[in-house]
């Protein structure tokens, strides 16, 4: 028995090591620069920055930064260990997310060896940006499901741990409100299941015996207010739902029909359908219903907003189990041997993909520009050298974070914090800027701007090239990624 346990632990270690290696990515988050600038401000000034001192539009706008604690973590990782520190931090968070969601689903070694690589592949689009607040939200979601699974197993007191979990979550990322909604759905299904199976005669006993669960639920709504912005975190989080300007943000769009990610959703849906069919009926399967229902709801919503796909993939583990177990050898020893073979293949593949790891050591802001937003240090230098960094300068949205961190001499027009900002008069910086960038209902030639620093990927670049050919604008710098235009 001792040797068997050591074998299971050793093979599990191979699987989690494979997840960590596979999750090492070069940081490419377009918002990285301003996140770290917020963290730097806190450690240098000793207070949380609330006003918009970085960008030109909506100066001094007061923002409820629900990811302020993530900014501190990002800055410390980068300040002490550079880009490599952010890569390792992101991989660690992802690995821990798999660990807790695996514990929540009580995955066997055989199940881990098959389900984990599949889920890791599905969530790679969000992981490959490396460390950011969204990864922490998925981590907290895994812990939420782990605690709820332990509670359902009979550990009633563990529900109280949800209070510090949501307290932390609300300070690290605005998706805490999404966690509260899933918590509510879980409680609703759990209550219905328990009353149907065990408490139809005396419902009152159910609420008495589960008082800690309901206390933790209502307490979680209150503890999230313990943050520097109070009720503002709710206002900021709710503002991310059903806002028309979200159509300009990729994470809030649906997957394109017949794209690779769209097919991933379809395949996952097929696996879930098979899983439900294999479950059949019975008390044992009803016991897990509180975990099945949130996953199915996330699956439906993920077809409208891709951001829901990532938590869906993690929670789909519960419905993937019966599919995987259908192929599991009856003999546990044989099942563990198969798991070991899959684990070795997983590790070999991870090392092969990431080898020789030199990209992580050599990562710099120049490389960041090449693999992230398509920015160019030489273009920024051209703006500074020609003294064009004034109020008549338009910079694109994607360049905001990069400029804020690297070129304080250039105040970007707009950045990634600002897509939903609205002042008391209803003015929205992103609503003003976006039609110019996309060259739709606003033309750069009719704007107040005389200088433009843009990526060559944007529609505004094509429009400016037309204006150059018409003799209205001229190019003072152009390279592989960026261009600087000046009005004649």
Report on the structure:
- The chain is mainly alpha-helical.
- The chain folds into 2 domains: 2-30 and 64-354, no CATH class; 366-487, no CATH class.
- 61% of the residues lie in helices and 4% in strands.
- The chain contains 23 helices and 4 strands.
- It has helices at residues 2-22, 32-45, 68-105, 109-122, 124-127, 133-152, 162-172, 176-197, 203-209, 211-223, 232-238, 260-279, 283-287, 289-301, 309-315, 317-326, 332-354, 358-361, 365-371, 377-385, 400-406, 429-438, 459-469, and strands at residues 393-395, 451-455, 473-478, 482-487.
- A 4-stranded mixed sheet has the order 1-2-4-3.
- A hairpin with a 3-residue loop joins β3 and β4 (482-487).
- α3 packs parallel to α6 (133-152), α8 packs antiparallel against α10 (211-223) and α12 packs across α16.
- The longest helix is centred in the first third of the chain and has 38 residues, at 68-105.
- The mean pLDDT is 91.
């Amino acid at each position: 028995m001792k040797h068997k346990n050591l074998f299971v632990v050793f093979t599990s270690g191979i699987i989690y090591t494979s997840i960590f290696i596979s999750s090492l990515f070069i940081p490419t988050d377009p918002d990285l620069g301003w996140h770290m600038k917020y963290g730097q401000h806190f450690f240098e000034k000793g207070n949380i920055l609330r006003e918009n001192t970085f960008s030109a539009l909506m100066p001094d706008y007061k923002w409820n930064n629900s990811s302020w604690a993530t900014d501190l973590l990002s800055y410390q990782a980068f300040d002490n260990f550079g880009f490599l520190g952010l890569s390792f931090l992101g991989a660690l968070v992802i690995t821990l997310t798999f660990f807790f969601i695996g514990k929540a689903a009580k995955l066997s070694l055989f199940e881990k060896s098959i389900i984990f690589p599949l889920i890791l592949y599905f969530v790679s689009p969000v992981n490959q940006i490396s460390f950011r607040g969204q990864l922490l939200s998925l981590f907290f979601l895994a812990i939420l499901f782990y605690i709820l699974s332990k509670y359902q197993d009979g550990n009633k007191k563990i529900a109280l741990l949800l209070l510090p979990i949501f307290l932390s979550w609300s300070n690290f990322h605005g998706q805490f409100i999404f966690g509260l909604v899933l918590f509510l759905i879980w409680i609703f299904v759990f209550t219905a299941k328990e009353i149907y199976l065990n408490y139809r005669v005396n419902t009152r006993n159910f609420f008495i015996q589960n008082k800690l669960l309901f206390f933790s639920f209502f307490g979680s709504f209150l503890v999230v207010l313990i943050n520097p912005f109070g009720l503002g975190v709710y206002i900021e989080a709710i503002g991310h739902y059903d806002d028309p300007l979200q159509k300009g943000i990729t994470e809030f769009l649906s997957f394109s029909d017949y794209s690779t990610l769209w097919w991933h959703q379809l395949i996952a849906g097929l696996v879930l359908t098979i899983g439900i069919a294999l479950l059949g009926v019975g008390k044992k399967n009803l016991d897990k219903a509180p975990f099945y229902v949130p996953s199915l709801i996330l699956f439906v919503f993920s077809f409208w907003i891709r951001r829901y796909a990532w938590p869906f993939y993690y929670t789909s583990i519960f419905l993937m189990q019966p599919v995987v177990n259908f192929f599991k050898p009856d003999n546990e020893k044989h099942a563990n041997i198969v798991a070991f073979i899959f684990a070795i293949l997983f590790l070999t593949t991870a090392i092969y993909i990431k080898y020789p790891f030199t990209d992580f050591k050599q990562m710099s802001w120049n490389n960041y520009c090449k693999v992230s937003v398509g920015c160019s240090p030489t273009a920024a230098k051209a703006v500074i050298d020609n003294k064009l960094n004034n109020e008549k300068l338009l910079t694109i949205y994607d360049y905001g974070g990069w400029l804020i961190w690297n070129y304080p001499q250039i105040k970007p027009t707009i950045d990634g914090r600002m897509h939903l900002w609205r002042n008391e008069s209803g003015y929205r910086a992103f609503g003003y800027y976006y039609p110019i960038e996309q060259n739709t209902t606003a033309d750069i030639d009719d704007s107040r701007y005389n200088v433009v620093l843009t990526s060559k990927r944007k529609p505004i670049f094509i429009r400016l090239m037309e204006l150059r050919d018409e003799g209205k604008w001229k190019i003072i710098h152009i390279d592989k990624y960026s261009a600087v235009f000046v009005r004649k």
